[in-house]
Write the structure tokens for this entry.
Amino acid sequence: FNDKKFDIKVARTKNRLIAKNKVNNLEIILYSIINTIIGITPLFVLPLHSILIAFSVMPLIISYPFMKRITWWPQLWLGLNFNWGILVASSIVSYNFLSDSIVFFYFGAVLWTVAYDTIYGFQDIKDDLIIGVKSTSIKFKEYPKVFLFFTYILSVSLWIISLVKLNKEPFLILLILIILITLLTKIIFTKIKNINACKQAF
């Protein structure tokens, strides 16, 4: 809803229902309320402190749609939002939900989101440059693969540190490394300026 004026100017999003005015404000509000109710229902079987941790992400969620207007790092904000469930899940099994191993794992997941959403953003980069919104896709458009390599490697490094601290099986670390190598190989052969190639890589 907040991006309606932007979506109509972007080739990939111009046919969305809100952008095309095919739904009114009341329908948007009702749909949002219904989805919110469905989404928060599972929370009420969790411990109280976990519920509070889950709801504490609301400022991040509410502010996220505005990030592309004020910072080059809306993907980072998205990562903080998307992966909040790691902290909630951790709090269910332990009050020490901010242990160093969980923090490492959380920020590894945040960086993973930054990387794949940067790839996603390259689909819209031409339109976004004209509109004037910001993203990591635009900020690192001169050396995108370097940024993606660095972000994915740092993400996996944090995951490995977390798994080592949690005394997990070496097999898990090996599996993650195999996934990383496969992904980096995919990036090498992806033509970033090709919209369809970015969509497939995403």
About this structure: DSSP finds twelve helices and no strands in the chain. The mean pLDDT is 86.
